[in-house]
UniProtKB/TrEMBL annotation:
PROSITE patterns per the UniProt record, alphabetical: HTH_MARR_1, HTH_MARR_2
Gene3D superfamilies, alphabetized: Winged helix-like DNA-binding domain superfamily/Winged helix DNA-binding domain (1.10.10.10)
Keywords per UniProt: DNA-binding, Transcription, Transcription regulation
InterPro entries recorded: HTH_MarR-typ, Tscrpt_reg_MarR-type_CS, WH-like_DNA-bd_sf, WH_DNA-bd_sf
Biological source species: Marinomonas arenicola
The keyword 4Fe-4S appears for this protein: no
Protein name: MarR family transcriptional regulator
Amino acid sequence: MLKPFALQVNKLEKLQSIADFGLLISAIKTHIVSSIDAELSALELTAAQYRVVMILAYNGRSTLASLCTEMDYDRGAMSRLLCRLEGKGLLDKRPSETDKRSMYLSLSAKGDAFIPNIQPKVNRVFEKALSGFSHQERDQLSMLLLRFLNNLK
């Protein structure tokens, strides 16, 4: 069996090319997702499901197509993820008033009530990742990541 790739802190000085920078970003994402999965396992929620719940919490409602675009999922994978959330009673589906083929997705009352249970667990992941960072460094990292993201849009 192959061991998963892991970047080691003592090898960071070797990261010189854009490709290596991409590798670092990819490794960070992988570790964040697996850490969130571990934190949320007691709630029987995955990092991907958490992301949908939070997108709906912030946006109020969405469609399958919008969520696919936002999360870079294909329709089949997103449909399965949404079915699992609906089965847990966290989602409501309503037909669109303007397009009868579309459904609007929103959090159910249970989904809204679930957020206070989720957020502290996810926050623990990021507190661990940011341990040793000053408030100024956290703010700077946040600004840099937002600029990075906006450059790609």
